[in-house]
Amino acid sequence: MSDTAAVPPRLHRFTPQALLGASGVLWFSIAAAGQWLFAYYIIGAYVPRTATGEFERWNETGLIDGYAQGDLIGNLGFISHVLLAAFVSVSGVMQLLPIVRRRFPTFHRWNGRAYMSVAVFLAVGGILLVWVRGTRMNDLAALGTTIDGLLILVTAGFTLRHAIARRIDQHRRWAMRLFVVVNGVWFVRVGYMAWAIASGGAGMSRSLNGPADILMPYAAFLVPLVLLEFYMRARDSRSSGFKLAVTGAIALGAGITALGLFGAWMMMWSPNIAY
Ligand code: HEM
């Protein structure tokens, strides 16, 4: 008799592999909802103010530069960056949904091309905003976001290369890494709010130059990337202990994401939706 035959059928659901998968689904569901809330905020905050020509009202969301009188190129760079950010926040989630991948392969291919092109545009545009327009509170924090932007370019390259070569497993792994780094700026906001709520604002300052403010742009892509690597290795591993440890870490990550999301929605996003 095999080992599994001795286990009552209902308990099969609670194997370490199933629990690990469930923790991934839990995190992804919270993140997907959060991505779409972020897109909803971007559209609600910037589309009405742009459509009515009240460009100076972009700055009501609490920006560093945003709209600047007389800086046509900078203003166009800013608003194209922001509006396309809404697109990646919606399309990235669609791209990773297994049901969309399986049932609508043509959509997956075209959405993937659009997602990657827009992500590259956002990364390059963001880096130019920081270092050419000079939109930064301090160099160290800006360097963190810049590294995230460079990682977007690297991971997009690998995702595309493996897709063209039909190495589907490698393509899927790089696509998940791309998803994580494209969401680096989203993780900054969510991480910032989770930390602010949990610690009461320790290491944070109004001018964004406290230790927590400077570390957050680095943690925002490093922690999710490390957790993703552990998740992928645990899925391939035969060790139940390793699977359960990673399940715990991902579940904790899901809780922190939910907390940060709640804070971001309440304090950063919903108050700035224009109408
Ligand atoms: C690829 C994913 C990215 C998304 C989804 C994204 C999203 C956004 C959003 C929504 C804003 C408007 C600010 C707000 O209302 O919260 C913004 C502004 C900005 N982003 Fe990005 N961004 C991305 C990548 C980057 C990168 C890689 C950099 C820099 C290296 C960057 C630099 C900036 C700058 C400088 C601003 C202007 C902020 C201001 O004027 O105060 N972004 N971004």
What topology does this entry show?
Blueprint: H1 16-51, H2 72-96, H3 98-103, H4 105-133, H5 139-164, H6 168-182, H7 184-199, H8 211-236, H9 240-269
Helix pairs in contact: 1-2, 1-9, 2-4, 2-6, 4-5, 5-6, 5-8, 6-8, 7-8, 7-9, 8-9
Bound molecules: protoporphyrin IX containing FE.
Report on this structure:
The longest helix is centred in the N-terminal third of the chain and has 36 residues, at 16-51. It contains nine helices and no strands. Helices cover 76% and strands 0% of the residues. The radius of gyration is 20 Å and the shape is globular. It has one domain (16-272). Helix 2 (72-96) packs antiparallel against helix 4, helix 4 packs antiparallel against helix 5 and helix 6 (168-182) packs antiparallel against helix 8. It starts with 15 loop residues before the first helix and ends in a 6-residue tail after the last helix. The protein has 275 residues and is mainly α. The model has no long low-confidence stretch (mean pLDDT 94). The structure holds protoporphyrin IX containing FE.
Give the overall shape: globular
- Which residues form runs of ≥5 with pLDDT under 50? none
Query: Averaging pLDDT over every residue, what do you get?
Result: 94
Number of domains: 1
Keywords:
mainly alpha; binds protoporphyrin IX containing FE; 76% helix; 275 residues; 9 helices
Could you give a short description of this structure?
Keywords: Membrane, Transmembrane, Transmembrane helix. 76% of the residues lie in helices and 0% in strands.
